[in-house]
Amino acid sequence: MNESPGFLLPPGLVAEALSGFSVPDSVRIARLKDGLSVLELFHGETLAFKDLAMSCTVHFLNYFLRKDGSRAVVLVGTSGDTGGSAVRSARSLPGLDVLVVFPRGRITAVQEKHMTSCLEDNVHVFAADGSSDDIDRPLRRLFSDQNLVRTHSLMSLNSVNWSRVMIQVAHFFYAYLELSGLGAEPGPEAEPEPGAEPEPGAEPEPGAEPEPGAGPGPEPGALPELEVVVPTGGAGNITAAFIAVRMGLPLKLVAMVNANDIVHRTVTSGDFSMAPSVTQTLAPAIDIQDPYNMERIFWLLLDRDGAVVKTMMEEFQRSHRLRLPENQRRLLAQVLVTGAVSDPEILETMRRCWEQNRYLLCPHTAVAVWHHYHRTHKAGRNRCYVATASPAKFQAAVEKAGLTFDPPEAVLALDQLPTRYQNLERSADWCKDWEERLRDWIQFVSRTRKEGGVCYPQSP
């Protein structure tokens, strides 16, 4: 490493962070029929891709806190997966307290239990009566209070934290090297269910729309392209993929969304505006109407013009709507293809993938894989579909698709665990009320730690 000695990380820190993953490389690729390759990023403790970057980020943070003899308070809003990953990565770390706010009734029971069953004294979970976008509003106000941030060393583990996005860039280099045949050695593959009979590859649906650029393969001598299809909500993962492209990786990027289609509308029509409300879908982790990582994509596209992007985002935060000029929209459409998938299409994709491959998709991964079945693909170009979570977290969606599976023991065990959380009720002035409740708790936690006390005296 060539960094300044003050920023060197000790050898083995990343390996330690990833030591709890259930497969040797922490990720693996399932190579299915008809060129359907699924990048499985869900082999961490909470069965979601957030575990990869989160575990590394928390280990980095803990290393520097211990080195400085300091503490920090982390504030996290979640649409489902980030909160559980943050809690499980940080619980019991002596220099870190984690406050997580999740949208009550809008996530699965497994996602909720991954947060509420952590009873360590440094874990503080709040259930809010609203959407994840609602949760972001008081959190933004708290982070904008610089005195609060400095006094309590307040920080975020959402993907606004650059470390999260930086580590996710590695996902796409791994996928590219494995699927282009340029890796040093083949990575482990996930096999379809035993007994699945090989059959001819499925062709796209009649009338399927061609992808931009579909046609002949790459020029002789050129690095092979890889098409990467990412289920997209807050746009952190697709931002990491775009950064990989800027680093020289020959990727063609596709962002697939559910009914919360702001990213799709932005690319196709320049309409970067929130819908009146967040639509609850079968893919709750991407039920987001405020994809704040789009700010990073705008900044990279517009030659890193911070002043222009600042004006754009201030207008968006003020009015919840922004119309991209056509020249900016065309720039975006040149680097990003999008599509939107309905709940019935999610279920149809889950069933179809199971019938053809005996391979079970989570509903978010199905949002991406829908593209495999319904778009015409460029000859000679490999494709990779990002699996962001295990189907074990979304049993209701699996059952709704008419499929069955046996949840792993770790998931079944969650039902037997005690829980602890606090409620943030919906009031007439809910945003201000939530902000004050969270501010009071941040101050209480900091005061308690300075006094050497505990926050939950009755906890086991």
From TrEMBL:
<protein>
    <recommendedName>
        <fullName>Threonine synthase-like 2</fullName>
    </recommendedName>
</protein>
<dbReference type="InterPro" id="IPR051166">
    <property type="entry name" value="Threonine_Synthase"/>
</dbReference>
<feature type="compositionally biased region" description="Pro residues">
    <location>
        <begin position="209"/>
        <end position="221"/>
    </location>
</feature>
<dbReference type="GO" id="GO:0030170">
    <property type="term" value="F:pyridoxal phosphate binding"/>
</dbReference>
<dbReference type="Pfam" id="PF24857">
    <property type="entry name" value="THR4_C"/>
</dbReference>
<feature type="compositionally biased region" description="Acidic residues">
    <location>
        <begin position="188"/>
        <end position="208"/>
    </location>
</feature>
<dbReference type="GO" id="GO:0009071">
    <property type="term" value="P:serine family amino acid catabolic process"/>
</dbReference>
<dbReference type="InterPro" id="IPR036052">
    <property type="entry name" value="TrpB-like_PALP_sf"/>
</dbReference>
<feature type="region of interest" description="Disordered">
    <location>
        <begin position="184"/>
        <end position="225"/>
    </location>
</feature>
<dbReference type="GO" id="GO:0046360">
    <property type="term" value="P:2-oxobutyrate biosynthetic process"/>
</dbReference>
